[in-house]
């Protein structure tokens, strides 16, 4: 679910308006209480064990889930993991509320999610939050433009309609749909992401609010294909999509003024590629 971006103008446009001090103070207080709780549980566990009632890993857990809970581990073992889990959730929430994710294409969001799960997270602190979002604010135009370039580079030049120097009035995408005896259905995967990215970029260029990801063009297109399995033309305010049994989709842009803006970005990154107007 996408959350609308909030703005904190004291530091940068990309930091949500929730008080940074409240986040940091709350996080530190919670970790202190969790550490106390682990010590308390350990004391109780020792007591129950001394009277034959077994340890907390058994009486506090569902059957078959013994030792699953970090609160049942030692402080030295549990607190680094719990701290990382809490910090990861806070970073995820800050990014969601910042609106920065809306500027990213699917590839960038996937890489960000991977880094969040597997990378070395900076600890939640006022200094780290401010420095991180100041850097994001500084790079936000590059992030947005990279999304457009990635959509452009993802086009197949096997089709004459796809111009290797710019976006044209129409583009052709391979493997957008599949067809069988029951009719058409939308392929799920990076082609779906590419279509959603294209809509997102056009909305941003038009200065409009991006649709919730539960209602983006790929979802609307999928619903249309499902409800009309034998039709071959989908239409909305930005695109007309004609799709064929071999799986390709011909996407015609309705807003050529926005196509021109995309081409300005392509020209910026690949100077000399666009033909003279």
Keywords:
277 residues; alpha+beta; 2 domains; four-stranded antiparallel beta sheet; two-stranded antiparallel ribbon; 8 helices; 6 strands; 51% helix; disordered N terminus; DUF4942 domain-containing protein; DUF4942
Judged by helices, strands and strand pairing, the structural class is alpha+beta
Radius of gyration, whole Å: 25 Å
Question: Percent of residues in helical segments?
Answer: 40-55%
> What portion of the residues fall into strands of 2 or more residues?
5-15%
Q: Assembly type of the shown chains?
A: single chain
Unreliable parts = 1-12
Number of helical segments with 4 or more residues: 8
From N to C, what is the helix and strand string? HHHHHEEEHHEEEH
- What general form does the structure show? elongated
Write down the overall mean pLDDT.
84
Identify the strand order in the major beta sheet: 1-6-5-4
Largest pleated sheet: 4 strands, antiparallel
How many domains, as an integer? Answer: 2
Total count of strands: 6
Roughly how many Å apart are the termini? Answer: 41 Å
Task: Present the secondary structure layout.
Elements: H1 20-50, H2 56-59, H3 75-98, H4 106-118, H5 126-153, E1 170-173, E2 177-180, E3 183-186, H6 190-205, H7 217-227, E4 233-235, E5 239-243, E6 249-253, H8 256-269
Antiparallel strand pairs: 1-6, 2-3, 4-5, 5-6
Helix pairs in contact: 1-3, 5-6, 5-8
